[in-house]
Amino acid sequence: MMIDIIGDIHGYADKLTGLLQQLGYAHNGQYFVPPEGHRALFIGDLIDRGSQQVATLETVFAMIDAGVADAVMGNHEYNALAFAMMDPDNPGHYLRSHNDVHVRQHEAFLAEIPFGSELHQYWLERFYEIPLWIETDYACFVHACWDVDSMALLKPLLTADNCLTPHALKMTAKEFTEPFDALERVLKGVETPLPSGLVMIDKEGTKRSRVRVRWWLDELKSRTLHEVARAPKSALAQIPIDALAENIDFAIKTHKPVFVGHYWLTGEPEPLSSQVVCTDYSAAVDSGYLTCYQLDTTQPLPLKPSNFVQYRHD
Question: How would you classify residue 247: left for phi > 0, otherwise alpha for psi between -120 and 50, otherwise beta?
Answer without folding.
Answer: left
